[in-house]
Amino acid sequence: MPPKRPPPQRTFLTNAQKLELKAFWSEHPDLQLLAVVDWVRERFGVSVGRATLYRIYHAPADAFAGNAQQKKGRRVKFPELERDILAFCEESRRANESSGAALSDDALLRAAAELRARHGISETELKLSNGWLHRFKERHALRVTPQAAAGEEVESAQTSTDNGDATQAASDAMDSGKPKRKPRATQRKVDAGVVMADAVDAVETNDVSDGSETGDDDEEDEDSVVEASVAIQEALEANSDISATTLEASVISEPASVPAVIRPLTYLSAVSVDPATAVGFVRWKLNSGMAHAEYFSVDDDGVAVLTNAMVQLNVELQHSALPSDSSPIIFKVWAGVELLGQCESSIRWADDQALSVLQLGCTLPAQTVIRVEYHGAGVVHSGSRLVLRLLNE
């Protein structure tokens, strides 16, 4: 039986990291999304999905203002109540500046309950629990004196514990005259129900909801479901064949996970400078890049690879819309005298312009010059792009 894969880890970016990512993206607009994924992994040590990066890219910068260490953005369910509670906290802070006294959790919860009633919100719609209190303070970066928040709940829990102890003592007294049974051996069989319950609890723990917030991190929530599914599947497998699992576990040791080597991001971006017609080579000039001087250079109608390297090449040509009877080949990409690939269809048309894209991965020897040869009708417009990224030396 092959070793089981560990469940996927949920990873998030803080607001400060998201702002840094947006700044990096604005400085390097030519980067492909996969290159940005690698940069995030290298910079922050986490791996995030492309959908998450897409949302961060299109979100305004002020969406990540506030608590710099906050990771998950939330929309509150009752924003007017939230503003009133926050105003109460600010008033309390100003009133206590001279005395140095801090607002306690109990006082904040009592004020929140009173304001909730004024807004006509029922307790079932918004439960002012410890979880709500923690998230409220986290959303607004508040520091409140950590007293016994929700004292009624604490007192109730203590009463329940005392009652349970008393009941257990009475039960022990009644059973004292009975002969005690020999204790059972430790159960070796894995209880799938317990593991499944733990998996569900793990999802709930990751994102406890008290009705005060609505989430907009769909991808992270999907990760929770995947994690729970993996745990449930493992529980079912363990319950169905525990003896085989136990036997194999004694002779099979899972290999230690080796972290992947992350290469610093190295790329060059060039843009076309003059209109090119068929059949002719597109001329380029340097647009942007990162740590590329030792590996790539722009040479008029080509881009040179200076060392032996494995590269990713992306060519995006904006050109005249092609008539139906035009050549089936739009452009070719050459590495010296070797044909790397050719593009035969456009991906987008608008008015009299079209966009054609070709993506290639290849290993090239040192001093190879990459050229793009246009074969379509009309002209290649200025602003077409060629991005060369170093994958490995």
From TrEMBL:
It comes from Phytophthora sojae (strain P6497). The keyword DNA-binding applies. Keywords: DNA-binding. Pfam families: HTH_Tnp_Tc5. Residues 156-170 have a biased composition (Polar residues). Residues 146-226 are annotated as: Disordered. GO terms for molecular function: DNA binding. Residues 69-146 form the HTH CENPB-type domain. This is HTH CENPB-type domain-containing protein. Residues 192-212 have a biased composition (Low complexity). SMART domains: CENPB (SM00674). Residues 213-225 have a biased composition (Acidic residues).
